[in-house]
Write a structure and sequence with these properties.
alpha+beta; 2 domains; elongated; Immunoglobulin-like; 12 helices
Length: 483
């Protein structure tokens, strides 16, 4: 996820959210087909978006016998599992058996656990049963869970659709062409042979973007400016179309979706360093001087062994180095060893193998070996991993904390307290409000995403604020070293 931060760097919020359902089952369209159900007949049916609150399905049906059950079977995006939920009467009460029914189902998406990104395709079928055991199931249809606040238009090309609103079609066309261009390069490198669609919802300003994201704290909402995020299991990308780096954001995020498809497994997700490295490798407009950051890190001993790069570091300087180093390692892997090995690596990860297992299988080295190959390319000395046994922490006795001692009350009624020396000792201070919290890659919704830039789901990316602060820090440290 690409984002700007106003005042501090925040940990990105996973976008890869899972909708809770009453019954989960593998989604197989061939299992439920439209069929003749004798006396059962649907007079009308509809489903519409009420984003961000949810979507509402309605049905009116009649039968010679009492209708006992009405349900909706649906799948969100490209999630592996579908959902099955029963309708209620229009007043919300439990549906009573009747020969003529009017029922509705509201599927709530207004909290983070049930969030569905706008632009997601939802496949659905209505299923009815009467008291005599007659059943009727409609053929599967699709609707797009659009943001109901706006009137959307769409343009499509080669399996990619960009939804936009307002007089910004030219911007949408630019992002569409950028996405198609990125896929043409990255799908062969990563070995993605699927024809699953990719949808992009383009917003025109920051306020629209913030209101389209999963619920978050008011503090984050007021200080986080989001440029884009990908949900892998839904195959959806949200992009700020008016941003200066919209093309780069679009290509970065769509690469996350491809990585999710070819490499995320049910056992583990792709480590951040290769996920973000591939996303920046696929970025058609990389906006930052990552090479400068890598040069600085090599000269100051700030390089990070890949064994420590499973998640984002916590300081702006280190985040920049992390991105630069990740992209540089991925670039070496593709250019030095070829696309075939990268495709095989993705397949090994998809099969559930650990990063070390996958690397050994395809490159003949583990993470440290790969890191040393990269150091060799930079003419730097080999990295020797520390001895784990010698790195164990030293046991320290825990300080004893006692209660305050209350003295006798004086005649004036003033309460006097005398804390014990231990209680009076200054505790370790909590981080200040201005301290930058650690940036960690979120875990993708088995649902989404995703992924959520999960790609999956889901995805944490560099912030402009972090980049600026980091670059200032790099410059200042460089000048100090010269003195």
């Amino acid at each position: 996820m690409k984002k700007h931060s106003m005042g501090r760097l925040f940990t990105a919020i996973s976008a890869v959210a899972v909708a809770t359902v009453s019954v989960l089952a593998m989604f197989q369209p061939s299992d439920v087909q439209a069929q003749s159900a004798g006396p059962l007949r649907i007079n009308s049916k509809s489903i519409e978006s009420e984003f961000p609150s949810g979507f509402r399905a309605k049905v009116e049906a009649v039968s010679e016998n009492e209708i006992t059950n009405v349900a909706l079977r649906f799948r969100v995006g490209q999630r592996a599992h579908g959902a099955y939920e029963y309708f209620r009467a229009e007043d919300g009460a439990r549906l009573a058996p009747a020969k003529e029914i009017k029922a509705e189902l509201f599927w709530r998406t207004s909290d983070s656990s049930r969030y569905i990104p706008p632009g997601t395709i939802i496949s659905y079928s209505f299923e009815l049963e009467d008291s005599k055991g007659n059943k009727l199931a409609t053929e599967f249809e699709q609707f797009v869970y659009h943001d109901a606040r706006f009137k959307w238009e769409e343009i499509s090309k080669e399996g990619v659709t960009v939804a936009y609103h307002g007089p910004v079609k030219t911007r949408a066309e630019i992002l569409l062409d950028t996405t198609v261009e990125t896929l043409a390069v990255m799908k062969p490198i990563l070995g993605d042979e699927s024809n699953d669609p990719i949808r992009m919802t383009m917003y025109n300003n920051v306020r629209e973007m913030l209101d389209a994201y999963p619920p978050m704290s008011s503090t984050i909402s007021s200080e986080l400016i989001t440029e884009g995020q990908a949900w892998g299991q839904e195959g959806v990308v949200l992009v700020l179309g008016g941003g200066d780096s919209a093309r780069g954001t679009a290509s970065h995020e769509v690469t996350h979706i491809i990585v999710h498809r070819v490499a995320d497994s049910t056992l583990r997700n792709v480590p951040s360093w290769i996920n973000e490295g591939l996303a920046e490798f696929g970025n058609v407009e990389p906006g930052y001087s990552y090479d400068i950051a890598v040069e600085f890190a090599t000269g100051t001993g700030r390089l990070m062994p890949v064994t420590t790069m499973a998640a984002m570091p916590g300081t702006p300087e280190d985040v920049i180095i992390f991105y630069g180093q990740s992209r540089s390692i991925v670039r070496m892997m593709v250019f030095k060893y070829g696309q075939e090995k990268m495709r095989s690596l993705m397949a090994s990860l998809k099969a559930g193998k650990s990063m070390d297992e996958a690397l050994k299988e395809n490159y003949g080295v583990d993470r440290i070996g790969l890191y040393n190959e990269w150091l060799k390319e930079l003419d730097l000395p080999e990295y020797v991993a520390p001895d784990r046994a010698s790195a164990l922490p030293t046991t320290v006795a825990q300080a004893t904390v006692t209660l305050y001692n209350f003295g006798n009350l004086s005649g004036s009624g003033t309460q006097q307290t005398t804390p014990s020396p231990t209680a009076a000792a200054s505790p370790t201070p909590l981080p200040s409000a201005t301290a930058a919290p650690a940036v960690a890659t979120p875990t993708p919704p088995a649902a989404t995403g995703s992924g959520g830039c999960m790609a999956g789901a889901g995805v944490t990316d560099l912030t402009v604020f972090g980049f600026l602060v980091g670059m200032v820090g790099l410059g200042m440290r460089g000048r100090l070293r010269k003195q």
